[in-house]
Amino acid sequence: MGQQQSKDELLFQKVSYNDVEAIKSLHHEGAGLEWVDKEGRTPLILACTKAELYDVAKTLLELGSNVNAYRSGCNAGTPLHHAAKRGLENTVKLLLLSHDANPLVLNDDFQTPLDIARAKGYSNVVRAIENHICLFSGWMREFYGPSFLELFAPQLLSRRVWVVIVPTGSQNHTKPFKLELVVYASLQDAQPRMVMPLWKANLEEPKSYQTDASVMIVDNSTSTRRSKARRRTFISHTRRWAQVDRQARLKLAAANKGDMKQLNWFCEPMNPPMFLQTSQITTTSVPLSSHDAMNEMAMHSPIPVNISLASANCENKEDGGSRACAVCVDASSEAVCVPCGHVAGCISCLNEIKDKKLGCPVCRANIDQVIKLYHV
């Protein structure tokens, strides 16, 4: 056992030295590829942290390293998380295109590799991941300003924006992945100017008879919260009410005037990317935490995706039904934090927050216990 572990550890060490031949030789002699150091790194994770180790990463993947191996702790995430964190575009493409890495896995901070690349400002990595997972991408025109002026000077009240529709990461892997509409001012931007959750938005279908047809998308995700906040304000705050009650709206047209083909493509996204239609083949012998187990389940199971936008008649159910979890915004709020008493999220999210001692998502009070609620 000790001799086998020393071989595995030696292979890990050869990664740092960029010694591809030694890695191949050790693996041929029986050395494993999933040895984990004290910092929670596998050989592949280590190879995905430096640009000069690209050939090592490629070799490890060809030898059978687990491309979706998840590790918690200070180096939480999959190899794709680590490559995205450091802006390694070529490594990211290697993981995605050649070895089917799952880009929708969440790390310990509930971030996908795309979230990390956006936060770090790596626009090249953002484009690489979005190109792999998007259901729509392209230049469009965004209208802004008073709507009555669009009749007289539409060219002065519109601007070119880069628009993508991508699936989001989710902790509830029994439900379809949800879609986000993401708007960038330019292709050089890593951070979006707007992100709109399409599962909470209404879509007004474009009118094909118009010379410059457009589509209006209304984000309803904040309307309920804003209306509740409005009821708590004083009657003298009339102007503030008008601002609070205003919904986020986005009016888009095709990049070229009259291009109904692009506009229809935007309104009816194409079939999901292949990685959303097939199960991910991954195994690991390392014990998994509850968070790891959820991600592992996601990588083993076929991933359903809901690709339809909400219709203009879609009913906002936030008032009538149960509220969404404040953490994953996916499952319903089904558990209460003790002792503060806030019904703040789903049982899995609140248990994980309790384990990390992060406090209640609403009031930040310490959580002594999480109790699941049952509605009759």
TrEMBL record:
Domain of life assignment: Eukaryota
Molecular function per GO: zinc ion binding
InterPro entries found in the cross-reference section: Ankyrin_rpt (IPR002110), Ankyrin_rpt-contain_sf (IPR036770), Dendritic_Spine_Reg/Scaffold (IPR050889), Znf_RING (IPR001841), Znf_RING/FYVE/PHD (IPR013083)
Signal peptide interval: none
SMART domains reported in the protein's UniProt record: ANK, RING
Gene3D superfamilies for the chain: Ankyrin repeat-containing domain, Zinc/RING finger domain, C3HC4 (zinc finger)
Domain RING-type: 325-364
Keyword field contains Zinc: yes
Keywords, sorted A to Z: ANK repeat, Metal-binding, Repeat, Zinc, Zinc-finger
Keyword Zinc-finger carried by entry: yes
SUPFAM superfamilies named among the record's database cross-references: Ankyrin repeat, RING/U-box
CDD domains named in the record: RING-HC_XBAT35-like
Pfam families according to UniProt: Ank, Ank_2, zf-C3HC4_3
PROSITE patterns assigned: ANK_REP_REGION (PS50297), ANK_REPEAT (PS50088), ZF_RING_2 (PS50089)
PANTHER family for this protein: E3 UBIQUITIN-PROTEIN LIGASE XBAT35, ROLLING PEBBLES, ISOFORM B
The name this protein goes by in its record: RING-type domain-containing protein
Organism: Arabis nemorensis
